[in-house]
Design brief:
- By secondary structure, the protein is an alpha+beta fold.
- The chain contains three helices and seven strands.
- A three-stranded antiparallel beta sheet has the order 3-4-5. A two-stranded antiparallel sheet has the order 1-2.
- The longest helix has 56 residues, at 48-103.
Length: 185
């Protein structure tokens, strides 16, 4: 039995002599490196570049998956912060907002509605802020900015602007996750 096997270089076609103890080598003619694979009595050569590409692909995939997990964590934190700020606004300003819009007979169509009841037709129901869009928040900010100058409403406007920025950040990060997931396909 021979101490070597003769193979052809997959890169240049040159003749190669592979001994039993070699697992990696460079072709004498073209200089390309190869990995020797042995399985079930069959010996094959794989260019090192192909193996490196596989490692890079797997590393890139792992990096993308890790980034997606990190961004999803950031999204959850932003959503929690937004939800808590919305609850604080609802607790702190519900009465003032209701009075303001009752005085305006409902104002902001689509964001608030006047409830008709037998005792008072000027009662305004404030929806959950979770149901209000960024455009509705913009309308509220514009409305409050024009008609109110009290310190309390300046704080409300500032809080609404904070919610708006949080919601924009959440949307941006969700789009980033979608783009990263598309790269994994």
């Amino acid at each position: 039995m021979a101490d070597f096997v003769t193979l052809t270089c997959p890169s240049c076609g040159g003749k190669l002599q592979i001994t039993n103890d070699i697992e990696r080598f460079a072709c004498d003619q073209c200089g390309n490196e190869h990995i020797v694979k042995r399985s079930g009595g069959i010996i094959s050569l794989t260019p090192v570049v192909d193996e490196i590409k596989k490692v890079v692909r797997n590393t890139d995939r792992a990096a993308i998956e890790t980034t997606i997990m990190r961004i999803n964590g950031e999204i959850n934190a932003l959503q929690s912060k937004s939800k808590e700020l919305k609850k604080r606004i609802e607790r702190s300003y519900n009465r003032e907002i209701r009075n303001h819009f009752a005085a305006r007979r409902g104002g902001l169509i689509g964001a608030f509605s006047i409830l008709a009841n037998s005792q008072d037709s000027n009662i305004v129901e404030i929806p959950e802020l979770d149901d209000i869009s960024i455009d509705d928040i913009d309308d509220m900010i514009a409305s409050f900015s024009k008609s109110l100058v009290s310190f309390s409403f300046k704080q409300l406007i500032s809080s609404l602007e904070s919610i708006k920025e949080l919601e924009k950040d959440i949307d941006l990060k969700q789009r980033e996750v979608q783009n990263l997931k598309a790269q994994l396909r």
